[in-house]
Write a structure and sequence with these properties.
Blueprint lengths: L19 E5 L4 E7 L6 E8 L3 H14 L4 E6 L9 H16 L4 E5 L3 H11 L4 H28 L1
Parallel strand pairs: 1-4, 4-5
Antiparallel strand pairs: 1-2, 2-3
Amino acid sequence: MQQKESSNSQGFTDLPAGRIVAIDPGTKRIGVAVSDPDRILASPLPIVERTSWKKLLLQIRDTLAEYDAKALVVGLPYNFDGTESEMTAEARGMARKLELSVDVPVYLQDERATTYEARGRLWKAGLEGKGMQRVLDSEAARIILTDFLDRIGSFLE
C-alpha cells in the first residue's frame, strides 16, 4: 500500500455517511468517479474537459450536488520514486482552491500508477484507441476513489 495523505486536518471520523466523489486531475481532462452511498463501490463518470477554472469548478460543484457527496478526493500524482513533480504541485494547488470553493472536505490521495493500471484494465476489457481514451481518466479516478475507500475503511475499523 502506498503512503496516503489528506489535505485537511479533519479526521475521517468526522466524515458524514454518504457518497464521495474523486477526480484525477490532468492538463486537458479531469477524470471523475463517485462512490455508492455505502462507500463500497466506485463508478466512473464522464470526464470533464479542462478549459477554465470557473467551468471546472462549476462542473465539480454540480457533480458534488447531484450525488449529494460528502467529500471530494483529488488524485496526487507522485513520480514512481515518490518524489514530487510539476503535476504534483498542480494537483496540490487545485486541492487548495477546491477547499476554498466547495462545502465538503477535500482529501488528497496518492495516485501513482493509476493511469497505467486503468489502461491495463481497459485493455483487458477490450478497449483500445479512442474508445480507451474516452474513459481512461475516469477509470483512473475510479481507482483513486477505490484506494481512498479502502484507506478510510481500514482507518475506521
